[in-house]
């Protein structure tokens, strides 16, 4: 895998982790990243599934808390703003690494 492919997958993983912090389901995360970060849902789904394999206990607990929690969801505008900030933060972090 090339550095750019690894970097892209790492960025998707980072964005998924942020989605988890904001209590998004897999479907909500796929939709948000598709709409706001232009990441194909199949990519998000694949990376999410790999994260589930590696962190099985976390995702079991996360899934249970998802089904028991109410509707503490962010608005569309909040989601868009959050995703755009995450992308710009990730890009600036990558350019800082490139400078090293």
Describe the 3D structure.
By secondary structure, this protein is mainly alpha-helical. The chain has a domain at about 1-70. The protein is built from five helices and no strands. The protein starts with a helix and ends with a helix. The relative contact order is 0.14. The mean pLDDT is about 85.
Q: H/E order of the elements?
A: HHHHH
Regions with little confidence, pLDDT below 50 for 5+ residues: none
Distance between the termini: 22 Å
How would you sum up the major sheet?
none
Taking all Cα atoms into account, the compactness measure Rg is 14 Å
**Which bin fits the share of residues in helices?**
over 70%
Tell me, briefly, the overall form: globular
Share of residues in strands: under 5%
Number of strands: 0
Number of helices: 5
Region (Disordered): 62-100
Protein name: Angiotensin-converting enzyme 2
InterPro entries: CHP01589_pln
Pfam family, one: A_thal_3526
């Amino acid at each position: 895998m090339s550095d750019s492919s690894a970097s892209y997958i790492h960025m998707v993983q980072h964005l998924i982790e942020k989605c988890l912090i904001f209590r998004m389901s897999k479907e909500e995360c796929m939709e948000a990243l598709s709409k706001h970060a232009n990441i194909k849902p199949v990519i998000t789904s694949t990376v999410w599934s790999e994260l589930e394999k590696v962190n099985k206990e976390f995702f079991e607990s996360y899934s249970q808390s998802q089904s028991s929690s109410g509707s503490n969801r962010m608005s569309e505008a909040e989601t868009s703003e959050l995703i755009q900030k995450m992308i710009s933060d990730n890009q600036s972090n990558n350019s800082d690494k490139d400078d090293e």
